[in-house]
Structure formats: C-alpha cells, structure tokens
Amino acid sequence: MKRTSRDIRTANRYEVLRQIIASSPTSRQELAAATGLSLATVATLVGELLELGMITEVGFEDSAGGRPRGLVAVNSSGGALIGVDIAETYVRVELFDLALTVLARADEDVRPGESRPEQVVAHVAAAVGSVVAQAGVEAARVLGVGVSVPGQVDRDGGIAEYAPNWDWHDVPLLDLLAEHIAYPLYLDNPLRACAVAELWFGAARGHGDAVVVNLGTGVGAGLVLGGGVHRGVSNSAGEWGHTTLVLDGRLCHCGNHGCVETYVGAPGIMLNLRELSPRSPLLHPEDQTATVRALADGVAAGDPVALKVVRDTARYLGAGIADLVNLLNPEVVVLSSWVASLLGEPLLDEVRASVARHALRRPLAATEIVLSPVPTDPVCLGAATFALEGALQSVGQRAAGKRAPTAKGRTAPPS
Amino acid sequence: MKRTSRDIRTANRYEVLRQIIASSPTSRQELAAATGLSLATVATLVGELLELGMITEVGFEDSAGGRPRGLVAVNSSGGALIGVDIAETYVRVELFDLALTVLARADEDVRPGESRPEQVVAHVAAAVGSVVAQAGVEAARVLGVGVSVPGQVDRDGGIAEYAPNWDWHDVPLLDLLAEHIAYPLYLDNPLRACAVAELWFGAARGHGDAVVVNLGTGVGAGLVLGGGVHRGVSNSAGEWGHTTLVLDGRLCHCGNHGCVETYVGAPGIMLNLRELSPRSPLLHPEDQTATVRALADGVAAGDPVALKVVRDTARYLGAGIADLVNLLNPEVVVLSSWVASLLGEPLLDEVRASVARHALRRPLAATEIVLSPVPTDPVCLGAATFALEGALQSVGQRAAGKRAPTAKGRTAPPS
Predict the structure, then answer these.
(1) CB contact (8 A) between residue A37 and residue B238
(2) How far away is chain A from the Cα of B366, in angstroms, using its nearest Cα?
(3) Is A36 in the same domain as A117?
(4) For this UniProt entry, which residues form the secretion signal (chains A, B) (predicted)?
C-alpha cells in the first residue's frame, strides 16, 4: 500500500511511544535524538500522549546551563491492553498494563471437535472475562483487545479468510467476538503479531528492515520494511512458509510441493526425524511439542540422531532464510515462536552456518541472525500491541472526525 | 532503512512530478485528487517545480462556477537527463528531455578483453559526449547522468562492489567517471533502474507494492514497496535470482546451488534447451540473444521443442514468481528486460498458468502479472530517472544547505 502523510504521522506517534516505553523516564530532547524527529514534532506527539493519559510528566532533569528539561514516563496504569492468541489446540489471553507488563493470563484448551467458530469464540470470551476480573481493572480502562488467528486475515473487515488447521473460510470473527466482548477489537495473524512484538519490544526495535521468522506448526515471516510492518495489498504478505525450496519436493497442505514449511515446520521436523530414524524414541507421533522437546533434550545430551535432525532442519531453514536475506537485505533476522524457543542456541548456530553457505556476501555481511529476546508469549504481546496501535491511530482519526477502520465492537465499555 | 519526514517530502515531490509528466496539462486540484495529497501540499510542491523550471504554467481551465483553475505541464526543454546502461557486451547511453522522451542515443561495443574499469569508463565518456553533441543541448541544461552497472552497488559511495560478469571488486566507478564527465553522477544497478522506470513510466505507476522481474543474462527483482523502491540496508535487496528454487540443483556462479537464475536466466534457458534437445538447431552455443530469439521464432512457428522449452522455463519462473507473490503480496508483477521482451505473450501466458498452480489463493487474486509496457530500453530510462530523482531530492537539501549525497562530480557544467 502507498504511504500517506497520515501514515507517517501515525508511525511517528508509534515511534515516540515505543521509545518512551523503552527508556522511561526520558526528555523530549532525548526522544528527538533517539527518533530523528524534530523537537517540535516530538513536543506535539508527547502532548497528544499526555492528553491521552498514556504517559505522565515525572519531574525535571538539569541540563547543563539551560532550563531544566521536563521528563516523561509511560503511565503504566493509564490503560490496559488485552492480547488473544488463538492457536490450534488452545486459546491464550493476556492482559497488559501500558508498559506491556503481563498482569493476568488465562488459557483455555481447544479440544478436537471444538473448532467451530462459535466454540472458539466462547473460549475467547471466557478468557477475556477472566483476565479482566483477575487484574481487577475497570472496564473503562481497557483500550482494546487484539486477536491473532492463524492463516489469512482480512484485517479491516475482521474476517478470518482462511485458517488451514480448521478449514475455516471467510469467518466474520470480529463480528462474532463483538457479540460477547464490548471493547474495541483488532484482528490479524500470528506473523504480524510476532513482527509487531519484535518491532515494539524485541530485536527489531530501532531497525528499519527486519524479518521475524516464525517457527511453529506453521511457518512464516513477519516483514518490517521501512520502519513499519509490510502487509501487502491484501494483508497476506509474509507467507514465506509457502515459498518453494525444493521444486517437486514434499507435498504441502497448500497444494504446492516443496514449500519451506514442509521441511522446517514442526510436522516437517518430525518427518526429518522419521526419514532419518523411523523408530527413534525421540519421535512422539501424535505430539509435535513432545517431539521437538525430545530433540532439544537429545541435542543437549549429545544424541547423534537429535544432532543430525537439528542440522538437517537448519540446512533447510538456512537456505530459506538466505532467500529472505538476498531478497530483502534486512538488518536483522529474528527467530521466533515455540520451535525456535525450544531448540534455541544449537539451532541458531547451525542456521547461521547454513545461511552463510547460501547467502550473497554483501547482504549477509549486513544481517544479524538472533533468537527472539521477547520473554513472554510474543503472539499475545503482539496482539495486545495491535490494540495499542489502534488506540494511537484513532487519535488522529478522532481529530479528523473518523472512526478507527479496524476497530470493531462498541467503543464504550460495558456498563 | 527507516523513513523520515524528509523522505516522505521527497517521495511526494516525485509523486507530483510523475503525475504531471503522465497527464500534462493538469491542475493542482486534479493532482491533489490523483495523489491523495492535500491541495496545500500540492500547491507548495508545484511552486517548487515551477521555480526549478521543470514545469510551466500553461493557461487556465474553467471550473464550474468557481475561479478558473491554473494548468501546469512538464517543461520538456527545462532540462536534459542522461541514462547509461553498462552491460556485459555494450554500453548504451540515451539523452532524454524532461518528459523523458529520447533525444539522442549512442551505443559502444565492449569487446572481450576490454572489461577493465578504465576501458569501460572511456566508452561511457565517449558516448555521453556523443549524445550531448547529437542533441545539441547546452551543457548547463544537463541535470545529471544516471549510471546502471550490473551487480552489487554502493550507491552512496558510487562504488561497483561486485560485478560478477567482469569480476570487478570495489571499483570506485563514479570517481573514475567524474574525471571525464562534469555533470552530477548517480549510480545504481539494473534491478533498481528497471523498478524506477516502471514506477515512473510503466506498469508500477500508481501502485504501492509492485515487483519488477528482470529477465536477462542475470535475473533479479526490483521491489517497489509502500510506494517507493525498497533497497534494503546495504542497497542489495532484490537478489531474487539468487534465491533457492531447487535445493542442491544447478550450480550457480554465486556458489549456491539451485538458484532461480540458473533456470530462468538466458544461460539457464539455453541449458533447459540443451537438456531437452542437445543438438537442436535453435541452440546457438555462444550467443544467448540468438538462442532466445530462435526460441521466440520457434514458438511463433509452432516448433514443439521451442514450445516445450518455453513451458519448462515458465514452470521454473512461475514457481519463483509465486514465491514473490506469497511473500510480498504485490498488486502487480512486471516482466521486464530483453528475455521477457523477446519471448513476450507466449511466455507470459505460461507464466500466469504456472504462478496460479503455485501461489496461495488470496495473494494470487490480488496480483496482476504483465509484460513491461516501457517501449524503450528500461535500464537507460531508469538510470536517467535516477538523475531526475537526484535533482528533485537536492531541492530539499539545497534548501537545508546540503549537497545531494549520491551525486558525484562537479555540479557546475563544463565551461
């Protein structure tokens, strides 16, 4: 999509709040230096954030010979944000303060046979009610609820267009949720959630061009380009898991053959193990998480089969990441999600070696490859950040007499 | 790279001039409607362009009931731009007026054994002198010279970092050229030149997200994202030719195996033909152009071998383009450069079918695949546009008392 001056103002607002959250307390002068924005622009944006109650004045610091500088800090209690991670087997909901600290969490299992949209929505509604009650926040302080659902999402329409695991097609998820949840609602998918989490709070912060590689059951890449999330013309950018790595290779559920996901998604890793050692005790045929954990434990114990599987997986993964490096020339590639988290440093080391074998010298030299430093569930954190971004975006739009186009549901809290 | 407010002002200046070139004569009101910018912003930018002499006032049109609206048009004779296409076997230089019409052209053959930087620079200098003399423009009217050189380029430093065909490493090309050429000089590579040509004058105009696939001896993708060219952190984005399509496939000169380029670059197409029919009369072993032209003629005549080679090539190409569609979700994919131009519609039809077999439904539905509509050498046109962009960028920077960072050489014309 083309960028407008309104987009750049919203992006600047994000950038200033991001910087305040990262370095509270801070001065307008420090914010100008850190963001590259003019002091006048920073002063305007800080004024808006103060008016919203998202930040507060917290005193002054001496400046050598000049007037004392006013300090601002994030107002943690100035609002609450809720992040919803709808996954294949569970719904996780977390409630955050404005410093994005988790105040409450609720998990609901989604059992096989419970995957109809109404059933999933009931789980989400129950968990959202639970976190609000646990945290004891007034409903009026909840700025919004961000929801992550796997697959392809019509963000503006609030529709889960295609969720492969459940074969959902064109489910009007936000309308269904709005029947139970009275806060502003924002929908997107886990790729975007993880990208936003890294951009605001993780390894992509301060970088213009970054790729957040999501390694879970499904696989994809959240793209941060030009300092913002690249969504593409129909919000489906980032489907790196469905790029061809091995022409005519393994059959993928998308219908194509040889997709990256079929080699490095959790089921692909299980297949890598099965092809190497069909009766390995590391293999838990019906349990991806147990298998990946057994591989991680095996690597730690020096098990040769586990080492070989991680090396084989890293070979595929490195070739696929080298494609991203050559094509996009990012400053940083972040490995995120549960498979990356379980396999950790041993996977990272092998991936770095494999990328170095496949990538061109110049973009390789410009790129760091790191594990996500986000300590909590990045999908919940990113989903909550959708709500924060929504609240910041609606500042400008309220001023222009418009309603946030991505927020669904009543914006007034329940009475 | 992160975008700044200065970047957005420069991008707006580009957008307004682009629109004026496309639809002269036009009014400020029409420009505001076409670009989405405010009338005040358009009026400011039009004022700058008038002051630069790039556009002129050309009268008024009636507006129903209101004041007559002033019309502006591009001032074709307001300046000249030179584009240089340095290729493996030739140097082509074209001189354009400000409407980007070609006024003069000079070609120089680069014979084997003439590939030292000083030799290539001498060819460029001779051809630049020739086009200025042919067109009879005053040196003072030449706004700049854009130079395209294959491979990886340090744009700001004016350095050809790696040109694979000639094994150039870190050649300070703009400094060498500045010894002979007294106009402001701008360097980049053919991927960027073709992307800029499509963005200003071709199928990417008016689109936020577009991919320009370059099919020649080398292969790559110029990326237009968020309305501007995506260059990456070290100006090496777009190396799609060196993404893996067939893991452990054909050996590529980059050292990797199975790169897209080894299947769909001109030498890869020759190999597709040789593998199918080693003694085919279509094959001109030492001449890529003659072979691709023979294939095009063969397809037109219904030759089954030619048809099969184009279909095989399109199968690889379609899988690789589907990767771009799934990853970037662009509005348009443009096939550019000489191989695309020679193989034309028959290749396009097969590519569309192949992309449809490989891409995901949602991004596929949002994407058009087209042949480049640019009627002249897109590399020369794009290179000349580098000079136009440089002149527009230096407006803001002159105002801020700075010199265009990418322009090399004396900015005063020769006496």
Answers:
(1) no
(2) 7
(3) no
(4) none
Residues of B in contact with A169 (CB under 8 A): none
Q: Going along A149-197, which residue ranges are E strands?
A: 152-154, 159-163, 168-171, 185-188
Q: Which residues in chain B show pLDDT less than 50? A: 1, 398-415
A218 touching B (Cβ < 8 Å): no
Number of domains in chain B: 3
- Closest to B233 (Cβ–Cβ): which among A208, A228, A320? A208
For residue B405, tell me if it sits in a domain.
no
- Please give the residue of chain B at the shortest CA–CA distance from A228: B2
In terms of domains, do B383 and B366 share one?
no
Tell me what pLDDT residue B3 has.
58
Element holding A128 (H helix, E strand): helix A117-135
Q: Which structural domain range is residue A183 located in?
A: 78-193+377-399
pLDDT digits 0-9 by tens, A76-96: 998 999 999 998 889 999 999
pTM of the shown model: 0.90
Mean pLDDT for all residues in chain A: 91
- The answer on pLDDT for A363 being more than 60 is yes
What 3-state DSSP class applies to A244? strand
**A340 shares a domain with A263:** yes
If asked whether residues B243 and B362 sit together in one domain, one would say: yes
Decide if pLDDT at A408 tops 80.
no
Q: Are the beta carbons of A237 and B320 separated by less than 8 Å?
A: no
- What's the CA gap between A15 and B362, in Å, rounded? 31
Q: Are residues A177 and A62 in the same domain?
A: no
Same domain membership, residue A124 and residue A69: no
